[in-house]
Amino acid sequence: MKRIIETFQNIYRIEELRIRIINTLGFLLIYRLGSFVVLPGVDSVALQAGASQAQGIAALLNMFAGGAFSRASVFALGIMPYISASIVMQLLGIAIPQFAKLQKEGESGRKKITQWTRLLTIAICMAQAPSYIATQVPANAIVMDSMLFWVSSVVLLVTGTMFVMWLGEKITDKGLGNGISLLIMIGIIANLPTAIAFEFQSQIGVGGGGLVIFLIEIVFLLLVTIATILLVQGVRRVPVNFAKNVVGSREYGGARQYVPLKVNASGVMPIIFAQALMFVPMTIVGFSDSDALTGLAAAFGDITGFWYNFIFAVLIIAFTYFYTAITVNPNQMADDLKKNGGFVPGIRPGKDTAEFLDMIISRITLPGSFFLALIAILPAFAMIAGVSTGFAYFFGGTSLLIMVGVILDTLQQVESYLLMREYDGLMKSGRISGRSSANTYGGIAQ
What we know:
- The protein is mainly alpha-helical.
- It has a single domain (2-438), classed as Preprotein translocase SecY subunit (Orthogonal Bundle), CATH 1.10.3370.
- It is 67% helix and 5% strand.
- The chain has 19 helices and 5 strands.
- The chain has helices at 2-13, 15-34, 44-50, 56-64, 80-95, 97-103, 107-136, 146-174, 179-189, 192-204, 211-233, 269-278, 280-285, 291-301, 306-327, 330-339, 351-384, 389-392, 397-420, and strands at 235-242, 245-247, 250-252, 256-262, 342-343.
- A 3-stranded antiparallel β-sheet has the order 4-1-5.
- It is globular, with a radius of gyration of 24 Å.
- Residues 436-446 have low confidence and may be disordered.
């Protein structure tokens, strides 16, 4: 307890860190307050009375938006349109040479891509907003003139998403951690207390399994969390030797070091990518009365269904390889080692080292991608086992991976500030290692 108090005192003494934490909490508070602002023209009482329990993809969207999706809030679409736009821009960077050239132009290219991503976000919001109003807002809850309501609601939903995107960028610049990641995480955590309380009541109530079953669920949740932490922090250390340099009477280098290659180098992005693609059927069906499309959306909206989980797992495995390929560059790593006089024992510097690193990355990515896919579909198994829908989402999937990854990244940044000021870290022994510690992507979107 004494060490915890000393840690908080050390954090308070660092002015920059203190200001960043206050800014982060302030921006997150604004986001949470905005999620309760209902669209003008919607009767919140009638909306709650006519609302049904969100299922499938709608439930995931509601979780990412911190409940704003089910409340018909101005932040109902959340940050997912921006995530979808980022996915499209990254795919264009692979497929179209002009976009790939922009990604290599440094700051100027990044600014152009960011601007196009924002414009694409608006376009996606313009497509998703009418579908959301048509499928998620009951007709008896609309109290305004139809045309006026539709126009104003679409404008407000688009504006709300852009404001959420702006909040995320401000958290990244003025606060602590990756803003987009934190916004998604705070929306997920906001649902956790209610989900635990509901599960507890359902288990000890009539027809429930009792207190023992509830405690078993909690223990299983802790075990899954531990496994997720191992996945996030697991590394394959490649030994590297550096040539000795003698300057005067002193000798430099010659020590053995390691290149840490992450088992899950892509972080949570493959699940985010796959989840965004799984949202497409629900968006399309809002514009069509086709029975075929309705059936397709129903199949993709059933989170416990075989085809949903099978396609979801395949997409995750494919995106894991895709995102690892665009974020981890063995050729660049080999060139950096060669320039600094480093070499892998038994491997020639240059091309052979790049091929060796690429082989290791491919080998460790395979089990990492399968394990990531397994964690992603665990909520479906939890629901089949009788766990309530709201609580089952925390047994794996996007929610757990995002919470673990973002918390580790944020704590790592706090620890970095403490160590730079010559204070002790957050842990008595060892150091916190986040996803960004080994040339990996540290957040949800940039």
